[in-house]
Amino acid sequence: MTMKDWPDQDKPRERLFKHGSTALSNAELLAILIGTGSPTETALEVAQRALSYSESQYGTSLGFLLESALEEIEEIPGIGPAKAARLKACAEIGKRLLHGAEWSGKPFTVRRGKEVFEYVRTTVEGLDREHFCILLLNSRNQVMGKEVVSVGSLDASIVHPREIFKNCIKKSAASIVLVHNHPSGDPTPSDDDLEITKRLVEAGKLLGIHVLDHVVVARASFVSMRETCPGWFS
Average pLDDT, stretch 158-165? Predict the structure, then answer.
């Protein structure tokens, strides 16, 4: 049975018209964007598998829309290039609406911890696992991109300088900002956070890539290590 054969009250699109978008589950909203399923699956089943993939990789059901590359999304069975492009475009529209002026097409510049926090908060502060990210900056401190380096508990074996700096070199980044979240809600850096920061700052100096800051995000608060330990980043 395809979704066309379902009773109207069970179809995601009809439910949206009758009850509004807030009444729909993540799977139902995603199914509307996916549009059609495959010969063996409904669009809702494809959506549920995409959400399972996102949970396993990013710790949140919709995280893959922002964090996965287009090529990764299209490899999810039942999606393919056209649907992946539609999903990625929708995610980008949502991100621009949330971020407001900074996503108006103008380069976003970060110089202080608060600016970093405002840039990343909508994508990391609600996650239920630690995500370690980097912001790649050009010589004017304008953001060239954001990359997720690791997902899970933060420790030195996971966050290796090689993984941090390889794309910085490839993309000619002048400097980077380290960012990770604390799902506990307390942004206070742990001993591991401090140790990793020192290690990466020193590695950056050897490579000629300046580590400007390490910002820890926790819900509505943050800690900038540059502002609390300025001597490390000089």
Answer: 80
Return the pLDDT at 157. Answer: 43
Contact 132/120 with Cβ under 8 angstroms? no
Choose one of 79, 99, 119: the last residue of a domain: 99
> Is 187 found in the same domain as 88?
no
Q: Retrieve residue 229's tokens.
A: 């330990």
**Which has the minimum average pLDDT: 36-50, 111-125, 176-190, 202-216?**
111-125
Which tens digits make up the pLDDT trace of 121-142?
Answer: 877 766 778 888 999 999 999 9
- What is the three-state SS of the chain? CCHHHCCHHHCHHHHHHHHCHHHCCHHHHHHHHHCCCECCECHHHHHHHHHHHHHHHHCCCCHHHHHCCHHHHHCCCCCHHHHHHHHHHHHHHHHHHHHHHHHCCCCCECCCHHHHHHHHHHHHCCCCCCEEEEEEECCCCEEEEEEEEEECCCCCCCCCHHHHHHHHHHCCCCEEEEEEECCCCCCCCCHHHHHHHHHHHHHHHHHCCEEEEEEEEECCEEEEHHHHCHHHHC
What's the average model confidence in pLDDT over 13-30? 90
Looking at the structure of the chain, the number of domains it has is 2
Position 3 confidence tier, pLDDT thresholds 50, 70, 90: low
Shared domain for 59 and 171, answered yes or no, is no
